[in-house]
Specification:
This protein is α/β, with parallel strands linked by helices. 31% of the residues lie in helices and 26% in strands. The protein has a domain of 78 residues. It is elongated.
């Protein structure tokens, strides 16, 4: 119920993307002074960040539609892997997105279960 209310009060949480039927959304929203702050989380594994260009496009849409957009990169691998991901994203993302890097225990990433 709270999510539906947030969408009614702040329809900008539903970002329309050409060629997509459903709106796209960030992982987390905060309402600050009546404006939307979006937060997107991405995991950086030992192989680095998957599809940096798609990630950059996604958070770029958030930045264009929200008062402030954050991208949080959680790295369970070496700091070199995280630094590489940050460098690649900094080349692809506008200054409108705040990028935060965090490091912690490695997370076991499991593929989607068969339907």
């Amino acid at each position: 119920m709270a999510w539906l209310g947030l969408q009614r009060e702040h329809p900008e949480v539903n970002v329309r993307v050409p060629d997509h039927r459903n709106p796209k959304r960030a992982d987390l929203y905060i309402v600050a002074r009546g404006k939307i702050v979006s937060i997107e989380f991405k995991y950086v594994g030992a192989q680095g960040l998957r599809d940096a260009a798609a990630c950059a496009a996604q958070v770029g849409r958030h930045a264009a539609n929200h008062a402030l957009a954050f991208l949080v990169l959680y790295c369970g691998a070496s700091l070199d892997v995280q630094d590489d991901a940050l460098a690649r994203l900094n080349r692809l993302i506008s200054n409108d997105v705040r990028i935060v890097g965090m490091r912690g225990p490695t997370i076991s990433v499991v593929g989607a279960a068969a339907a």
